[in-house]
Amino acid sequence: MTALLPNVSLPGSAAVLLQATDGPFNLTTDGKTGLESSHSLAPFCTLCCCGFLNRTLAVLFMVSLAFAIVVGNVVTVTVFVQTRQSRTPQGYLKVSLAIADMMVGVLVVPFSVYTEISLMVTSTPPIWYQGSLTSPATSSSLGGLVSPWQPCMLIGPVFAGCTFVSISTIFLMTLERSVAILWPLHKDALVTRRRTLLLILLSWAASFLLALAPLIFSSNFTLEYNECSRMCNYTPLMFGSQLPSDANILLLFPVFDFTLLGGTLAINIISFTSIRQYSRKRKLLSEGSLSDGGGGVGMGGGGCPHRPSFSDIKAAKTIGILTFAFTASFTPIAVFVLGNVVGYTWCNFSFFAFWILTGNSCCNVIIYSVRDHRFRKGVTLLFQRDQLPPHGEKN
């Protein structure tokens, strides 16, 4: 196998093909010697991106973000588990989304913190850092050469898989709310707990299979820690100055992302159009009941016996806000990918693009706190329960 092209930013959740013509790091046999004698931590890394102060601020930001992600999503899962009213299909979907976000805060962000601190306090990077550049192969008992295990082979697919789970879960939440809006009488028959749990399991399995697709279906890709994004990114193996012939497999990532986000947007448009029609019809019937002396009362207190409930409408609006927040956090990654395709490296921007997407993992609990009164009530009861005196003491 040929050597790796280091620090080519290929997002775990939106990787596409990059132009390799402007990268001077084709690590053939002739070029390795010079790189080993004077190793740079990143080909595109600037003082602004890799200075000591910059690393310190980045580590503080990562630690704060990890704390917010873990605490917020632990509270979310606890509230939905301990509140009976939350044990609905929508509640299970919210728990699935919270678990995916929590995995990012427990595994992905702490790994970046550990790597950044290691680069700050040691003169040499970790043995697995940047693959073959600083990872000398060791002989095995069978007589072959074995390279050190690359932690990014675990962390990278976890981040990509959790991102895909978030996208697919938001899509399922939107689909569930659309059924409640468009067919309220058939909601309980169509959306059951068993079907919801099955769809959640399928979304997790498909998401992580897709995250591993470049490694499963091709031997021309690996994962490395990228100095610019401070994340584990997919890196293609170079054949001379050419990308591998099967590099098109990475296009599965943006196709999946944009297909689900586009489908979610379309379903939201249909749902909100229906909500607007119901609201207008209710207003007209209410005005008619006033003028007719109660003629609209027989139609269900507002005139439409099959209209969705107020809680369904509010939940649909909340999921619409979740979709908007995820799309906004995903947009910088899309811009970064397009910039890479036309030849821009954007080292500093890659950090903001990846970590804005990571920061979305702590946004959901904020949205629930603002929009969902049941969630706020559950949080209040959760903390009040810890402060209540024992039963005998209370008596």
Describe this structure in words.
63% of the residues lie in helices and 4% in strands. With 395 residues, it is mainly α. Strands 1-2 form a two-stranded antiparallel sheet. A two-stranded antiparallel sheet has the order 3-4. Strand 1 (138-139) and strand 2 (145-146) form a beta hairpin. The model is unreliable at 1-44, 132-145 and 290-305 (pLDDT under 50).
Could you outline the blueprint of secondary structure elements for this entry?
Blueprint: H1 29-37, H2 47-50, H3 52-82, H4 89-121, E1 138-139, E2 145-146, H5 152-182, H6 187-190, H7 193-211, H8 213-216, E3 221-226, E4 231-236, H9 252-292, H10 310-341, H11 347-359, H12 363-371, H13 373-387, H14 391-394
Antiparallel strand pairs: 1-2, 3-4
Helix pairs in contact: 3-4, 3-12, 3-13, 4-5, 4-7, 5-7, 5-9, 5-10, 9-10, 10-11, 10-12
Give a quick summary of the entry.
The chain is mainly α and 395 residues long. It has helices at 29-37, 47-50, 52-82, 89-121, 152-182, 187-190, 193-211, 213-216, 252-292, 310-341, 347-359, 363-371, 373-387, 391-394, and strands at residues 138-139, 145-146, 221-226, 231-236.
